[in-house]
Amino acid sequence: MDAKFALIVDHFKARDYKDLSLEEKLLFIDSLSRTAQGNIAIEKMGEILADYPKNSSVLATAGTLYFSQGRINKAEEYVESAFAIEKDSRDAILAKLMLSLHFRKFVGAEKWYEKLVRIDPEWRKSYLYYLLGIEVYSAARNLRKLSILYKKRAEMFKKSDKSQFRSLISSSNLLRGAVKKPLFNVEGNTEKIAMPFAADPQDAHQNTIYLIKKGKRYRVLLDTANSAGWIIHNSELRELLRSKKGGRALAEIGTEMGVMDGYFIHSKKVDFGNFKIDNMIGLYVPKPRPDFYDANLNPAFIRNRVVTIDYINKQMILRTKERFEQDLNSLHPKNHFKFPWYGYRYTYIPVTIEGKSGLALIETGAEDIAIKLDFAKKLLLPLKQNTKYLADGKTSQYHETRIKLLMGKYLIERKVAEVWPFDRFYDRISGLSADIIIGPKAFIDNFALSLDPFDKKIILRGFSPSQ
Questions:
Q1: pLDDT in tens, 253-274
Q2: Of 19, 104, 182, 387, whose CA is between 20 and 30 Å from 239?
Q3: How would you classify residue 237: left for phi > 0, otherwise alpha for psi between -120 and 50, otherwise beta?
Q4: What is this structure's pTM?
């Protein structure tokens, strides 16, 4: 309940698995799942399922395990089976809550979360309750309840830690002040707005736009793996936008930077020239190096427009649902493919990797294609070790392999693709980690990527079904 999953894993790894009770085995597997180590528990889970096929806790734990492995539909089957046996299974409700978030059923996730408290009031005292509340109320855009959650959490530190108390109260007040308008709301009556990408030689991603203030251009990266949604890195820009300051926050903004110190912010209105975005809650994190971006925007946080990152025509397009459908219907059906959109902050899609089903994270803040080490070993791909030199002068060891990736009907091949453990790219509650990360180099010049929050789809438009 204190979300110390890694400590639970260490505890059980020091014991003989054969001597564990069923309850202990399930707790062990659950904690392995939530620390992105579920791959070593698949065989153990299969044995337990064979022995206890009608046990709701076993089925719910299987759902949690397969969800952490990116097998989202299979996870849902196990969770529904658990409910069929025990309708108020706490484990199944917890798993269903995370599934609801990733199926983008935000109101449903909120109901499951609050049902947990009705079934077990002790939840309110736990750190896991607090962490889940942040995820659920942030995804549901329920700032009032999120503000209350921070305030109640602050009360726990009123006597023991004044600094933590003040920080949480500050964040609570910031959220309370942003309640009146929808978050990340694109302003304007225009059905279609096009914003050209910045012609910037420093931008290897080719999905940067300019934000102009007082005649000065600030570089904003469109980054679909930005978990905060909106991050300002330039203190001058934060002042120009009059972004209000909240409590302290820690953030990871790049593999070589590690955890950095920052604070919550509220940008009431950000004018990009061609369009405006209201009510942006996010973070201020200082630049880790001088050439870093001035700000970072996750277009997946916009819900009142279909956002297209068009790598063919080098522009970002914001459209109403009606206009997007009109434009899409004017294309030949062979020239686009619709994926289910999994994820409430990120852009996950199902793909086929070397003939095997997998979960991909479209990461426009990355570079090219990279595959998870565990998954590469599962596919028996040839691995070659290599060294990468990071921006801070340090080195990092990784592997390389060749890969064939099928995104819907579009085939992409790499003779050399990076292979990483992805030990920092997993959800800290569910343990979910993508099998593969797809960066802009897979799309540049050939594809346009559209995020449709209305139909919960990600649409890929390309010139031909092969590259």
A1: 765 566 788 999 999 999 999 8
A2: 182
A3: alpha
A4: 0.94
